[in-house]
Design a protein that fits this description.
The chain is mainly beta. It has 2 domains: about 210 residues, Single-stranded right-handed beta-helix, Pectin lyase-like (Pectate Lyase C-like), CATH 2.160.20.10; about 150 residues, Single-stranded right-handed beta-helix, Pectin lyase-like (Pectate Lyase C-like), CATH 2.160.20. It has 7 helices and 25 strands. The strands form 3 sheets. Strands 1-2-5-8-11-14-17-20-22-24-25 form an 11-stranded parallel beta sheet. The chain has an 8-stranded parallel beta sheet with strand order 3-6-9-12-15-18-21-23, with no helix packed on it. A 6-stranded parallel beta sheet has the order 4-7-10-13-16-19. It is globular, with a radius of gyration of 21 Å. The chain starts with a helix and ends in a 19-residue tail after the last helix. The N terminus is likely disordered. The chain binds 2-acetamido-2-deoxy-beta-D-glucopyranose (NAG) (12 copies). One 2-acetamido-2-deoxy-beta-D-glucopyranose binds next to loops.
Length: about 375
């Protein structure tokens, strides 16, 4: 008896999610269940480092998948390729990040007498940017001036079940990035990001989407110029310093809805042995065009009664354009009396919140460059 054609069609995995599970599942032949164009990285595979596999990819628009076998990879990964790249951590439990088997580890900070004064870009465990210039943080109100002819970088980067760690020191000791992305689109699912200061940098024209992730830090650990959406994740406070968010707008980034948007997530101390009640700020303005919105998050008692704070008493960096906002947060860290008394946090009403209420609204705002306006790079199945 032959199987009807339409049934055969149903037996073939149709979605990225199905491919992901069968490819990630550990099997004798690691490539079994993987999409075409998959490379394997592992201690006994042809590629021993993630970066060597990345560098082997052609600079064209074909999609490539890199399956990473369990282990600690001590290396910096730098992705300049524009074509789609998916990194998968091998795991039998792809829907639980506490069972991730792959750690990508780097150990570097900058900005202090001990660590030197390299740009923050050089410290990052993972960098996704077309050029060095695109990835530099720079200084001053507008940061590094990226040359106007810089092409857009990766149009569709995805990572699943990977931990990115910058463990320079177990406390804030200068910027030490786990992720740096600029002029690129990237989605991260069931990924962990662990550092203390400046854990995640989403730079100019960077579009970053995180779902079911864990992001740990102490000082300004979500910072940048670009657009970041954090969905159903855990922000783990390892201590307090600066704020959770420190965003910057420039006259060159007003073209999009830059900012960091944290949704339906849990913001809490990293573990029960920390005593930080009332000490952690939701954010502070890296410049006065800071934009961040915490919406529908559970906040534990680590959060300061005021919510956000000024940059400093003498240099407040707050004006009419500063958006340091919350919408429908709850939990012991949401102190309404404290928020109102300090008058720093904007408690948005439905009308104020509406323009920022979905990834489609913040990422699809008209752009002038590259592929940024398309959000096909986001995997909404996670
Ligand atoms: C990749 O596709 C984009 C448009 O989608 C095109 O502009 C670019 O030239 C292509 N790159 C290569 C190397 O073919
Ligand atoms: C990309 O390069 C690879 C390796 O040379 C080639 O097999 C593939 O066909 C190329 N893809 C496109 C879209 O040109
Ligand atoms: C891998 O790195 C993690 C995190 O730094 C560490 O806890 C673990 O002991 C390391 N494992 C091995 C096998 O080195
Ligand atoms: C993930 O795994 C941990 C450790 O085994 C377990 O405690 C937790 O309940 C799991 N989470 C989910 C959503 O299954
Ligand atoms: C990443 O690679 C590009 C291209 O090789 C290089 O220009 C840049 O310096 C690298 N970035 C970092 C932060 O090392
Ligand atoms: C970075 O941009 C500046 C200003 O356009 C330029 O002078 C410099 O050569 C660029 N650096 C690199 C490594 O391309
Ligand atoms: C709790 O988190 C802090 C900050 O990361 C760390 O230094 C400490 O070792 C952790 N304690 C436990 C018991 O895990
Ligand atoms: C942005 O501001 C800088 C100085 O702060 C100025 O040099 C530059 O021309 C401005 N760019 C645009 C697009 O307005
Ligand atoms: C708020 O977050 C909770 C828990 O993450 C979720 O169950 C609920 O659907 C969210 N509410 C809205 C309106 O999105
Ligand atoms: C506020 O933002 C607008 C653009 O939306 C800009 O034109 C204006 O200069 C900004 N004002 C201040 C005080 O930064
Ligand atoms: C809430 O904030 C008010 C005003 O700052 C403060 O007096 C009060 O102690 C706070 N409540 C809690 C539970 O932290
Ligand atoms: C809160 O701050 C805004 C802007 O700085 C100011 O216009 C307003 O009067 C303040 N409200 C109170 C009650 O102090």
């Amino acid at each position: 008896m032959s199987i009807p054609l339409f049934l055969l069609f149903l037996l073939i995995p149709q979605t990225t999610a199905l491919n992901r599970y069968s490819c990630q599942y550990p099997t004798r032949n690691p490539l079994s269940g993987c999409p075409p164009n998959t490379l394997v990285v592992g201690p006994t595979a042809k590629f021993k480092t993630i970066q060597s596999a990345i560098l082997s990819l052609p600079h064209n628009n074909s999609s490539y998948t890199i399956l990473i076998q369990p282990g600690n990879y001590t290396e910096q990964v730098n992705i300049t390729r524009a074509g789609p790249v998916t990194l998968l951590g091998q795991t039998a439990l792809p829907d639980n990040l506490t069972h991730n088997t792959v750690n990508v580890i780097w150990h570097q900070a900058t900005g202090t007498a001990t660590t030197g004064t390299l740009d923050n870009a050089f410290t990052s465990t993972l960098t996704i940017a077309p050029t060095l210039n695109a990835s530099l943080t720079g200084s001053g109100p507008t940061g590094n001036t990226v040359p106007a002819d810089t092409p857009f970088g990766n149009s569709d980067f995805r990572a699943y079940n990977l931990n990115f760690i910058n463990d320079y020191l177990p406390y804030s000791a200068g910027p030490s990035l786990a992720l740096s992305m600029s002029y690129a689109n990237g989605g991260f699912y069931y990924c962990g990001f662990y550092s203390y200061q400046d854990t995640i940098y989403v730079g100019k024209l960077g579009n970053a989407y995180f779902s079911k992730c864990e992001i740990a830090g102490q000082t300004d650990f979500l910072y940048g110029f670009g657009t970041a959406w954090i969905q159903s994740s855990r922000l783990a406070l390892r201590s307090c310093g600066g704020g959770i968010t420190a965003w910057k707008g420039t006259n060159t980034t007003f073209v999009n809805k830059y900012g960091v948007y944290i949704h339906d997530s849990v913001v809490e101390k990293a573990n029960s042995s920390l005593s930080i009640a009332g000490k952690c700020a939701l954010g502070r303005p890296w410049n006065a065009q800071h934009r961040s919105i915490f919406a529908n998050n559970s906040l534990d008692d680590s959060i300061e009664p005021s919510g956000y704070i000024k940059w400093s008493a003498t240099d407040t960096r707050i004006n009419y354009n500063t958006t340091m906002a919350e919408y429908d947060d709850y939990g012991p860290g949401f102190n309404l009396t404290g928020r109102i008394a300090a008058n720093i946090t904007i408690l948005m009403n439905d009308g104020q919140y509406a323009p920022y209420s979905s990834p489609q609204k913040v990422f699809q705002f008209p752009f002038t460059q590259g592929e940024e306006g398309n959000i096909g790079w986001i995997d909404f199945s996670v």
